[in-house]
Amino acid sequence: MKNRTVLISGAGVAGTALAYWLRRHGFAPTVVERAPALRDGGYKVDIRGAAVEVARRMGVLDQIRRERTDVRQGSFVNAAGRRVASMEGDDFGGRTGEDAELLRGDLNRMLYDLTKDDVEYLFDSSIAAVADTAGGVRVTFDSGATREFDLVVGADGLRSVTRRLVFGPEEDYVHDLGYHVSIFSVGNHLGLDREEVTYVSPGRTALMYSTAKDTGAKAMFLFASGPLEYDRRDRERQQSLLAAAYATDTWEVPRLLAAMSSAPDFYFDSVSQVRMDRWSKGRVVLLGDAGYCASPASGQGTSLALVGAYVLAGELAAAGGDHGAAFDLYEKEMRHFVEENQKLGPQNVKHMVLGSRGLIRFQMTMLRIMPYMPGKDRVIAKILEPIHKAANAISLKDY
């Protein structure tokens, strides 16, 4: 086997899943993660279509089912908090068949536990420089230490440091869809029991949900915006931008915003996609959001990460470690799947954030009467068809 030693930047779902498959195929992966420990908690994520089969092949599908959020109902509320339309949780979340929803941190912990005993993890560290050598890659870490690896994988998310170091400036690849998103933990002051409630105003959506695995709740904000000026490390500035965007909203919005200053997991970023003509350069390759983020609005980021990890490791194994051939086949296998899932982001976000009161009234009316419509199940299936077509837009090889 050539090119056995592989450095993976990022211990998220993509990185830990790749570490599992590489180790299973006989490689020696090392995972570097800038956080001081594995990131627990986080928002809820979906596993659909081909990703369900990947989870089955990893032997974790039953465990995923045990960790499901079990959200039973999704509702829209008016400014007074009255529920004006409700749907079953799976219909609300676009899930059918074997699809499953769980907290990102629970999935990440699950994959880490599969690998922690035979994969090297370097926490509280990150890549600072990458340089080609005669037969590999010399990596300099932020500590100043250097090591050599046969291959490097950037699985470090939308704001990938690996991509910037090897492929060039972020603005060449990250495309803002015209929205921003924020999510953080809050107290469950509404007493929600495995329920998601959503409040919609023109250009802005706010929601709150509770899950079976969390005694608290999460608040999420999604709003239309042009480019915003802020430092990604400046939490106070991000929170002021969020507060300004929702300054005129009612429902529970003021109370939720008041909780953000004490939230341990405050997140704020643009709703963006990563679009690249090529995901590899020399001995460096990108995986998941770093190479082909479909945006949170797609609902497919986790599935893309799981499937991408399976295919990348499988092609490396099938090619005997020949990285050039493997990277070419990885792109060939994944490109259509990625493109189909990236189409979902711009489509979905327009239904999540409505631009006028007229559109809001129309959507609320349709949601309110849907349970009483003849052929309701066929209508829902037609609505969900694009996401399930995209989720299954790849035939998995047996590696």
Summarize this structure as a short list of keywords or feature phrases.
alpha/beta, FAD/NAD(P)-binding domain, D-Amino Acid Oxidase, Chain A, domain 2, 2 domains, six-stranded mixed β-sheet, 25% strand, globular, FAD-dependent monooxygenase, monooxygenase, monooxygenase activity, FAD-bd
> What's the number of extended β-strand segments?
18
Task: Please state the second-level CATH architecture of the largest domain.
Answer: 3-Layer(bba) Sandwich
Cα distance spanning the termini: 15 Å
What spatial form do the alpha-carbon principal axes imply?
globular
The total count of helices amounts to 14
Query: What is the CA-based Rg, rounded?
Result: 21 Å
- Widest β-sheet, arrangement of strands: 5-4-13-14-15-12-16
Structural class comes to alpha/beta
Helical content (DSSP H or I, runs of 4+): 25-40%
The CATH C-level class name of the largest domain: Alpha Beta
Pfam family, one: FAD_binding_3
GO molecular function, one term: monooxygenase activity
Domain FAD-binding: 5-340
InterPro entries: FAD-bd, FAD/NAD-bd_sf, FAD_aromatic-hydroxylase
